[in-house]
Each structure stands twice: as structure tokens, then as C-alpha cells.
Amino acid sequence: AVIQVFPDSFHLGTLDSLLGALPEMQPGVKVHSVMASLMDRLARYAAADPWAMTRLTEMRAFERFRDAIGRIISAQASMAPADAVEMYVALMNFTGSVHPNLVTNVNQ
């Protein structure tokens, strides 16, 4: 829900704050869904707006998302494996959209 109420540009501008807060969410919050929605939304934004594509590349969004996923999994030890996989699938979809020529991201 938090992903849907703010414009894409807001999420892009506050990405670090949001990624920092997600690992701290209370158990029971579907953080994996929030992460997947955020990555999907920013990938669509990048596809529609060249400025957003450039900005995501400059800010190394893939690495930020990858690191945040690791922190979330560490912080939420009871997370179901399927939920962790959902975040990584969203990350691969994100990198396929934003960085289609960087196959090295898939290996990370």
C-alpha cells in the first residue's frame, strides 16, 4: 500500500530511506511484497521515462536493492523461503528491465 500512494518520483528520491526502513518492519508485515512492488514500479517508471532510467543507473539501484534484500532476510529470520525467492525474482525482473545488457547482475 505504501508503494501505491506516492508517485514514482517520490520513491526514486527516497529510495535509501525506504530501503533502510524495510528491514526494521515488524514481523507479519509482508516486506517481500513491498520490495517486489517497489522494484516492479520503478522498473516500469524507468521504461517510461529516460530520466528515471538514467537516475536508477547512476544511483546503482540494483546494488541497493540487492543489499536491502540481504538485510531483510537477515532481520526476518522467520521469513518463508518462498518470500525471499519472490524478492530475488523481482530483482531479476528489475535488472532485466533497467540493465538488460548487464548479465553480470544475474550472477550476483
TrEMBL record:
Coiled-coil residue spans: none
UniProt GO cellular component terms: cytosol; late endosome; retromer, cargo-selective complex
Pfam families: Vps35
Source superkingdom: Eukaryota
InterPro entries (UniProt xref): Vps35
GO BP term, pick one: intracellular protein transport
Signal peptide coordinates: none
Protein's name in the database: Vacuolar protein sorting-associated protein 35
Taxon lineage: Eukaryota, Viridiplantae, Chlorophyta, core chlorophytes, Chlorophyceae
